[in-house]
Amino acid sequence: MKRQHIIFNLDDTLVHCNKYFVQVINRFADQMTDWFPGIPREQVKQKQLEIDLRSVDKNGLTTEHFPQSFVDTYKYYCELAGREAEETKIDALRRLGESVFQIPVEPLPYMYETLERLKAEGHELYLHTGGDEANQRRKIAQLELAAYFDNRVFVSQYKDTAALEKILKQMKFDRDSTWMVGNSLRTDIVPAVELGIHAIHIPAKLEWEYNVVEVKSEPKGAFLTLNSLQEVPDAIHEYLKQSPDAIHEYLKQSMEKAE
After folding, report:
1. 153-156 and 223-225: which strand pairing?
2. Of 23, 73, 207, 230, whose CB neighbour count within 10 A is largest?
3. How much is the pTM?
4. Which DSSP string corresponds to the chain?
């Protein structure tokens, strides 16, 4: 089998992420309904999401956008209630928002087994993650992912088609043998499909609304939806068995060995 270049997303593809944000947002909503009795929790959460998404669209995937969304939501309700925003409460909310980046991360089921198998089969593994460089490197170091990705790690503040295209050109990938594996339709799957590489979508159980978009481009290669990381190696193998290019490559290698 021809060696494949397999690019993985990190958050909610290899490691848990969104569930930590949900936990902290729930604590924020509890605090806000204590300070502003009568305001529904879901309304507070929806306003925080609206403010957060607007910031991400403008500034990219920075660590500042999340705690700032707590502060801006608080200020919004202060203005509605005709109150002055209190600095002690602003500081407390900022610390609460920042706490999500200090939680030790956990691998998703079968993460190590999947990476180990793909590596053992001779495929080359890459990581393309979005967010703050220091925070993402913290997760990679904590879970010792360098054993699988070495220095083939890319962190993008704006994780989009342009960012993926830059990686593909830098690494001079053969796009027919390159895969993107991720949970985010917006930042993983749409860029992969638009750039003509294979795409594997593994939907997250808890998905951030930002990641949910429609895939409008026509796939040039594989476009698979799987339930688990564990399914990735077999799915790639099955696709390649059906691919004329894979058959041609196999015959070519067989002839070279015979000579």
Report:
1. unpaired
2. 73
3. 0.87
4. ----EEEE--BTTTB--HHHHHHHHHHHHHHHHHHSTTS-HHHHHHHHHHHHHHHHHHH-S-SSHHHHHHHHHHHHHHHHHT-PPPHHHHHHHHHHHHGGGGSPP-BPTTHHHHHHHHHHTT-EEEEEEES-HHHHHHHHHHTTTHHHHTT-EEEESS-SHHHHHHHHHHHT--GGGEEEEES-IIIIIHHHHHTT-EEEE---SS--GGG-----SPPSS-EEE-S-GGGHHHHHHHHHHH-HHHHHHHHHHHHHHH-
Q: Tokens 């879970």 correspond to what residue?
A: 143
Rg (CA), the chain: 21
- Judge whether 184 and 211 are in contact, CB under 8 Å: yes
95/87 Cα distance (integer angstroms): 12
**Residue pLDDT, tens place only, 41-87:** 999 999 999 999 999 888 888 888 999 999 999 999 999 999 999 99
Query: Is the Cα dihedral 137, 142, 145, 147 positive or negative?
Result: positive
Which pair of tokens denotes residue 248?
């041609």
Written as one letter, the residue type at 230 is: Q
164, 187 in Cβ contact below 8 A? no
What lies within 8 Å, CB to CB, of 135 at 6+ separation is 63, 101
